[in-house]
Amino acid sequence: MDHRNSPRRPVTLYTMLNYPSLGLVRGCIRDVGMGGMFVDIGRIQLPVNATLEVSLMFGPSTLKTPMLIEAIVVRCAEKGVGLMFDELDSEIRYALSHLVFGAAGINESDGCSEFLH
């Protein structure tokens, strides 16, 4: 059963997760919505209900601005985790809305699987 409150958009974007027990974990965002995302983290496993920080880069490739989003692991899958965003400030909410509802063709990083494995 799907409990999402907003649609998800398929994407392929690099990210870094900061989970205090492991440190930085490289990931590839596979889909994103206003309430969360699915991140491919390869064979690394994170516990459900773990709190972590997601680092995202928004904007044109030459002017990307890093944004940090607090998230909670709500689902674990074979190659990744489903994350629910904790609290979003207005700047992050605005940037996410452009990512989720903006122009088609967001596929900024071919080869995410090579990056992870």
Automatic annotation (TrEMBL):
<feature type="domain" description="PilZ">
    <location>
        <begin position="3"/>
        <end position="102"/>
    </location>
</feature>
<protein>
    <submittedName>
        <fullName>PilZ domain-containing protein</fullName>
    </submittedName>
</protein>
<dbReference type="GO" id="GO:0035438">
    <property type="term" value="F:cyclic-di-GMP binding"/>
</dbReference>
<dbReference type="InterPro" id="IPR009875">
    <property type="entry name" value="PilZ_domain"/>
</dbReference>
<dbReference type="Pfam" id="PF07238">
    <property type="entry name" value="PilZ"/>
</dbReference>
